[in-house]
Amino acid sequence: MAFVVNPVYASTSFGISVMLFIFIMFRTPGSSWGYISQALIFHQVRKYLLMLDTRKDHVKFWRPSILFLCKNPRTCIPAISFLNDMKKGGLYVIGTNIVGDLREPGFVTKLEDQNMAWLSLVQLLGVKAFVETTVDRDVRNGIQNLIMTAGLGGMTPNTVVIGFYDTSESKDFISEPDSLPSRRPLFSKLRRTQADSRGHIDKLPEIETHSNDRRITVDSYIGVIKDVMSLRKNLCILRHFHKLKRPSASSSPLFIDVWPVPPHPTSTHIEDDTTSMFLLQLSCILHMVGSWGGTRLRVMATSPSQILGETEKVQLEGILKILRIEAHVQTVILAENFENLTESEKYQSLNRTMKDNSQNTVVTFMYLPRPPPEEGQNLEYLEKLTVLSEDLPPTLLVSGLSKVTTTEL
Prior knowledge:
Helix content: 40-55%
Number of helices: 12
Strand content: 5-15%
Strand order of the largest sheet: 3-2-1-4-5-10-9-6-7-8
Shape: globular
Number of strands: 10
Radius of gyration: 24 Å
């Protein structure tokens, strides 16, 4: 009615009210007696969480919900930000297991400090993630608890992401001046929050400097991979993400590469292979994110000969068209007599082939071979993964256990 009586005065009053609201929101000091908004948000979130029913899940509405198992955030800053892009509207949980016992003197205080430091880091990085912590003397048991209990109600992770079991020296990204946001916020309330966050993250654990300090053995690490698959979760293993550089303006094209064929191809059609479909889906989601829009999605059609390679290329192009994924399919010819090579030689040959085709690659998605059933073969399996992914760009070794795409209405 006010706009009908006098539109000028009504517009002016409305504008002043909005400016006062914004001024009070960002300039008011912190409250010591609580915020009513938190109580209202809690009520609404609880109500809608109860309405989520996992029995009504359908592949048509699938989205990546990620649980990132992070040992030390100081070494994982690029990976944390990358996975925040890849989740694309899904759930994102960062989980960590603290080795110890609650009965140890001062351990609870240490746990509270680390939880506060984690929350401050997430806020400072601007990632939309929850943080969950477990305590166990055995790392594998702690990770099992995280996988089974992460999330709430119908919001649970469907994809577990872990780092690679690497013996190289870790890099402390938090101590570097350019690794964390440095831009000064406009409003004083945000400036105070940023300053508080930087103060808390200093309490994060230090990096272990020697390989003997590792809290997890090779057998436990491979056991974690098997546990994830046993619990029917999709799995991604990250390697070389300390080298990740976000795409920027460049004269040469930058690529997101997908290698959707396993090291030991079977007769299974690629559209029936859950891992191949999962690879294509994840790479497509990443490519759709605004900050990755300057890259090109490239799917590699591997084949022992040019004739078979063209057939493989046509098949992949048909699948991508059905899935409505915009990508360029490139034929890659494997080494001569590839089928006659030993298993170790095949991994070395594939690694050389991928390196030869990765000059302008930002991220590589590749097929994760299945772990061996026998525990005595764990070290050999890890060595094969090391050879397969050696000296590549930032790489995700991926295993898909559930269906993520459908062509049915």
